[in-house]
Specification:
The complex is a heterodimer.
Chain A: H1 2-13, E1 17-23, E2 29-32, H2 36-60, E3 68-72, E4 77-82, E5 87-92
Antiparallel strand pairs in A: 1-2, 1-5, 3-4, 4-5
Chain B: H1 2-46, H2 51-66, H3 76-84, E1 109-110, E2 119-120, H4 167-177, H5 179-195, H6 202-210, H7 212-230, H8 242-246, H9 248-256, E3 257-263, E4 274-279, E5 286-291, E6 303-309, E7 319-323, E8 327-332, E9 339-344, E10 349-353, E11 363-364, E12 376-383, E13 388-394, E14 398-402, E15 412-415, E16 417-418, E17 422-423, E18 426-430, E19 438-443, E20 447-452, E21 459-465, E22 471-476, E23 488-493, E24 498-502, E25 510-512, E26 519-524, E27 531-536, E28 540-545, E29 555-558, E30 565-570, E31 576-581, E32 586-591, H10 593-596, H11 602-620
The chains are: A alpha+beta, B alpha+beta.
Keywords (chain A): Cytoplasm, Cytoskeleton, Dynein, Microtubule, Motor protein, Transport
Pfam families (chain A): Robl_LC7
Organism (chain A): Cirrhinus molitorella (mud carp)
Chain lengths: ~100, ~625
């Protein structure tokens, strides 16, 4: 769908955004704006982390579920929006 | 007789038959016993109505397999009490209790679910077929609940490790080894999955992207994500400054001075030195750069001026202007947005207009003695919208003032002579903010002079001595704020130093000695009172914030390629710095917010810094300092 492409391009064009990745439930990247090796690395690691975070949330309250994960490091900010099936990962440089 | 023999034979036959029958009977008995015991065992196994029973049978089986026959010495002892009492057979639990009267040879430990009645059926060792039922000692064995043993991938240990020897441990380890191979399976399946991502084909990806599910997810997530991205406030900012101290190294290098883009044109910029830069006052994204001759291309025009646009990503200049002689200095005409003025090596002033389609100048000053005959290194438009003049100074010390409408002859001209003896070879010139009469010039000998255009003291005023080499750049403080610092100016020179002066003192206030090569240019920030930029021959761009340190630059970056940097110019907003190098490239650097944007107290802080500087210097050298009348 062209809208998806356009939207991703628009996100990518926002000042400070380094990359955008869409990952499916198994951790396989579907769409990305980064190079392949980086994408695979980010997708795999963040998928595992999201699974762990989700299980944490659900252990505390089984009715609850993870919706958004935001990781702030010294150099970047990684934002993961998640639902049952997919992950949307955006990596941003927050200093700008 | 025959009867007797017959009878005898018959008797014998009968005896034999009886014996046979007895034997058969015995055999059958035995078989039956066997069968029965088997059946009993089977019935036991079949009707498992509790884990406990199952476990007991397993233990039995294990014990038997080892060879420990289930002959607990307890058997005889409970026999006696049991022989007396006949415990009610609890039919609920024991499956076979009574019918196994003839269980026989095989001792089986019959565990009853009702622990109150433990029935040990003795066998026919004693030849006793009577079943002795009775209460017996209760031996309770607790089985620990099955441990749920989980392993993380990292702590996975190989299965074929030590098998403990105890029985219970054996049983437990049997159960343990079951989850372990499961873990191994999961691992390998995970690895298989990790290999898998690379195999998702484009068609599959397209399919997923077009699916309804995905679109729904995407729509929702993108909305949130855009909101998050749009918020660019730094929620982690620590006002106490502790964070800044920790990551000062990183912050300095990283966000304080970051490369934005560079401008370079293959045809026009190659092999030319950037001689001058200027930002447009009307359109902050326009930058004009002048270049000198390209020795490799003698048929190309010697002087090139390019107007670059920061706003768009295109790599080609907006306007290209030529001139027959190298352009040494260039500037946008302050009050005429369409005009670009250039001073050339031959002494001519060229005027280009971007309304015309010509690349050559629309107006040029004549090559005559009334105008300049030496290279013009400084051009400046001063004044107001209605009354403005173009001031140009050449290296023979001549200052001319022109009107932009008529460049055929200067409105006025003046020789800059110091002490009525020698003309000043001017290399750079600067006007303080909002001053149209007085200005400062730097010379080839390393001295700096103030000069004024009109008035009783027209011409060279004071001399400032301090540099040991030609002065390459001069810049007057032009940040406007609560405190007025317009008497300050900085100079850069071939003697590797940058000096800070005040027009009130003829000796430098401070000397910045951090460079290791000729410093080619210096410029104050247009917004920050304590910030200025310098460039040197090593390709280094330094930003000095005098409120932070006066010994070292607050931010520094070396431009790629290691070319000498010839010019530096701040953009009018004070957030970007343009640097021109000796290979024809113009580099644009973004200055981070922390450094570029002044705080309201920066002015007072700078005033204090100045006082400190003066105090320090006052301690050092007192002689030779002349307090100059303002």
């Amino acid at each position: 769908m062209a809208e998806v492409e356009d939207t991703l391009k628009r996100i990518q064009g926002i000042n400070g955004v380094i990359g955008t990745i869409v990952v499916n439930a198994e951790g396989i990247p579907i769409k990305t704006t980064l190079d392949n090796s980086t994408t695979v690395q980010y997708a795999g690691l963040l998928h595992q982390l999201t699974m762990k975070a989700r299980s944490t949330v659900r252990d505390i309250d089984p009715q609850n579920d993870l919706t958004f994960l935001r990781i702030r490091s010294k150099k970047h900010e990684i934002m993961v929006s998640t639902d049952k099936e997919y992950l949307l990962i955006v990596i941003q440089n927050p200093a700008e | 007789m025959a009867d007797r023999s017959d009878l005898k034979a018959e008797l014998e036959r009968k005896k034999q038959r009886l014996a046979q029958i007895r034997e058969e009977k015995k055999r059958r008995e035995e078989e039956r016993k066997k069968k029965e015991s088997e059946m009993l065992q089977r019935t036991e196994n079949v009707s498992e109505d509790s884990d406990l029973d199952r476990k007991r049978r397993e233990t039995e089986a294990l014990l038997q397999s080892i060879g420990i026959s289930p002959e607990p010495p307890l058997v005889p002892t409970p026999m006696s009490p049991s022989s007396q009492s006949v415990s009610p057979p609890s039919e609920t639990g024991s499956q076979e209790s009574i019918d196994g009267g003839t269980v026989g040879r095989y001792r089986t430990l019959q565990w009853d679910t009702d622990p109150s009645a433990l029935q040990l059926l003795a066998d026919s060792v004693h030849g006793c077929r009577m079943q002795r039922l009775g209460a017996s000692k209760i031996v309770q064995i607790d089985f620990m609940p099955k441990e749920l043993v989980t392993y993380c991938k990292e702590t996975q240990t190989p299965v074929a490790s030590d098998q403990p020897e105890e029985e219970e441990d054996e049983e437990l380890s049997v159960t343990k080894s079951e989850p372990v191979p499961q873990q191994l399976e999961e691992e390998s399946s995970q690895e298989a999955e990790e290999v898998h991502p690379r195999e998702l084909t484009n068609e599959e990806k397209e399919q997923i992207v077009h699916s309804e599910d995905f679109l729904f997810f995407f729509d929702r997530s993108i909305r949130v994500m855009e909101r998050v991205l749009a918020e660019d406030t730094d929620i982690f900012f620590d006002y106490s400054g502790r964070d800044m101290q920790d990551k000062e190294g990183d912050m300095q290098a990283g966000s304080n001075l970051s490369f934005n883009r560079h401008f370079y044109d293959e045809h026009w910029s190659k092999h030319r030195v950037v001689t001058s830069l200027d930002w447009s006052p009307q359109y902050p994204e326009l930058l004009v750069a002048s270049y000198n001759t390209n020795e490799d291309a003698p048929h190309e025009p010697d002087g090139v001026v390019l107007v670059w646009n920061m706003k768009f990503k295109k790599m080609t200049p907006e306007y290209i202007f030529h001139c027959q002689s190298s352009v040494m200095s260039v500037g946008f005409a302050q009050f005429h947005p369409n005009l670009v003025i250039g001073g050339t090596y031959s002494g001519q002033i060229a005027l280009w207009d971007n309304r015309s389609h010509r690349r050559t100048p629309v107006q040029r000053t004549p090559l005559s003695a009334t105008a300049h005959t030496h290279p013009v290194y400084c051009v400046n438009v001063v004044g107001t919208q209605n009354a403005n003049n173009l001031i140009t100074v050449s290296t023979d010390g001549k200052m001319c003032s022109w009107s932009l409408d008529m460049l055929s002859q200067p409105q006025e001209s003046m020789e800059l002579i110091y002490n009525k003896s020698k003309p000043v070879a001017v290399t750079c010139m600067a006007f303080p903010a909002s001053d149209v009469n007085n200005y400062v010039v730097g010379s080839e000998e390393g001295t700096v002079y103030t000069a004024s255009r009109h008035g009783s003291k027209a011409g060279i005023g004071e001399m400032f001595d301090g540099h040991q080499g030609p002065v390459t750049g001069i810049s007057c403080h032009n940040a406007v704020g609560p405190v007025d610092f317009s008497h300050l100016f900085t100079t850069s020179s071939f003697d590797w130093t940058v000096k800070l002066w005040s027009t009130k003192h003829n000796k430098p206030l401070y000397s910045f000695e951090d460079n290791a090569d000729y410093v080619y240019d210096v410029m104050w920030s247009p917004v920050h009172p304590a910030l200025f930029a310098t460039v040197d021959g090593n390709g280094r761009l330094d930003l000095w914030n005098l409120n932070n340190y006066t010994e070292v630059p607050s931010a520094s970056v070396t431009v790629e390629g290691g070319c000498a940097l010839n010019r530096v110019r701040w953009a009018s907003g004070g957030r970007e710095v343009a640097v021109g190098d000796s290979e024809g490239r113009v580099w644009i650097y973004d200055v981070g917010e922390q450094l570029a944007v002044p705080h309201t107290d920066d002015w007072s802080k700078f005033a204090r810094t100045l006082m400190e500087i003066r105090a320090n210097r006052g301690d050092g050298e007192e002689e030779g300092v002349l307090e100059l009348p303002a």
